[in-house]
Amino acid sequence: MQKQKTPDRLRGYLRQYAEEYPGAWKMFEEIREDRGKDLPDWPSWCWCPLSGSYAIVNMLRDGIKDKSIEVMIEKISAVGALGALATWRITKGIYRFDPDLFAALWSTPLTGKLPAELLYRLPEWCVYVEVPPGYEMNDQALYGWFSHLEYHIQTGRTELRFVFDLEKGLASYMLHLSRITLEECIIETVEESKRQALKHSRKQDVKNLLEAIAATEEAEKEIIERQNISLAPFVSVLLYLCSVAADMNDAQGRRERPENPAPRKTKKGMRVFPVDGQTTWLVGYRVGAALRRGGAGQPGDTARRDAGTGGTHATPKPHIRRAHWHSYWVGPKKGARKQKLVVKWLHPTLVGGGEIVPTIRRVE
């Protein structure tokens, strides 16, 4: 069966969940209206905490009395999917990457102390990243994924949420952002997953399995490493969207850059309305074109003559230099004691592809 086009498939998800949870979109708006009034306030980078989605799912599915772990997992997945769709519905941005840039980012490992705070710079409350054909996850075709930031009102904890768009439907996952670096966040996510499974599971065999894993240090490291490898491609792609050098073009020619819609004044106060239609953002097409101009050869296949020496040295083909830390000495050059070493994070950049004019977005 031929894959349905992304805009049609996403409209289908909105219809499906609107039918399964009638009135849900209106309920989300009411929760937003009570923000900072009857409900606690939350940061502007979160459209609506998933506690709202959890309340809506419980309210509209209160007839389900089955408390088995399978039903619990299904309900948690529904909470994640409904929350992502409700948030994405406000902006409806589809991010379509140049295939060569996507492949380069997808294969970039998460190494070094990448600060988790970078992921607070998503261009919209919720993004949908379209995946080029040929990618799989859990032996299913992967069409794309939703990502947004979640804020726990009770604990103040932050998560990066994923809802994967797979051949068999939507599947939810999350990454805790309660630590400083992404590596530490992945470790915390594994630990929290085990704690929750032990807390809610009634099956002794599942408890025994998790306790055995927790007792084995090597097994623990292996789980964290697998988690790192599986999440790295998705986080690498999102980091590019968060970087100031991410070049984007609105395929419909309506807007210059993605942003959340501005609140409008109504009789009930300021309110954010969903945008009228979907917007497809073409991401990295100038970078991708430069990568293709480099050809399929390896670095060093071409040579450039050095001016004034008569010698030659290899010219590397265009490639993506992954995000990394870089140290700088700042302060007056005279008087070394007055200088100090600072560390800054450099976003993914194109090397050897000519000048790329960046799209710069405000970050609040």
Strand runs, count? 16
Rounded to the nearest angstrom, the radius of gyration is: 23 Å
Gap between N and C termini: 44 Å
- What is the general shape? globular
Helix-strand string: HHHHEHEEEEEHHHEEEEHEEEEEE
Main sheet, how many strands, which sense, barrel? 8 strands, mixed
Mean pLDDT: 75
Low-confidence regions: 212-225, 296-313, 355-364
Secondary structural class: alpha+beta
The share of residues in extended strands comes to 15-25%
Portion in helices:
25-40%
- So how many helices? 9
Overall description:
With 364 residues, the chain is of the alpha+beta class. It has a domain of 187 residues. Helix content is 37%, strand content 23%. The strands form 5 sheets. Strands 1, 2, 3, 4, 5, 6, 7 and 10 form an 8-stranded mixed sheet that branches. A two-stranded antiparallel ribbon has the order 8-9. Strands 11-12 form a two-stranded antiparallel ribbon. A hairpin with a 2-residue loop joins strand 3 and strand 4. Helix 3 crosses helix 4, helix 5 crosses helix 9 and helix 6 packs across helix 8. It is globular and about 65 Å long.
Summarize the structure.
By secondary structure, this protein is α+β, with helices and mostly antiparallel strands.
Draw up the topology in text:
Elements: H1 6-20, H2 24-33, H3 50-60, H4 69-91, E1 93-97, H5 99-106, E2 126-130, E3 136-137, E4 140-151, E5 158-166, E6 169-176, H6 182-200, H7 204-215, H8 217-242, E7 248-250, E8 264-266, E9 269-271, E10 279-283, H9 285-293, E11 302-305, E12 312-315, E13 319-321, E14 324-330, E15 340-346, E16 349-351
Parallel strand pairs: 1-2, 1-10
Antiparallel strand pairs: 2-4, 3-4, 4-5, 5-6, 7-10, 8-9, 11-12, 13-16, 14-15
Helix pairs in contact: 3-4, 5-9, 6-8
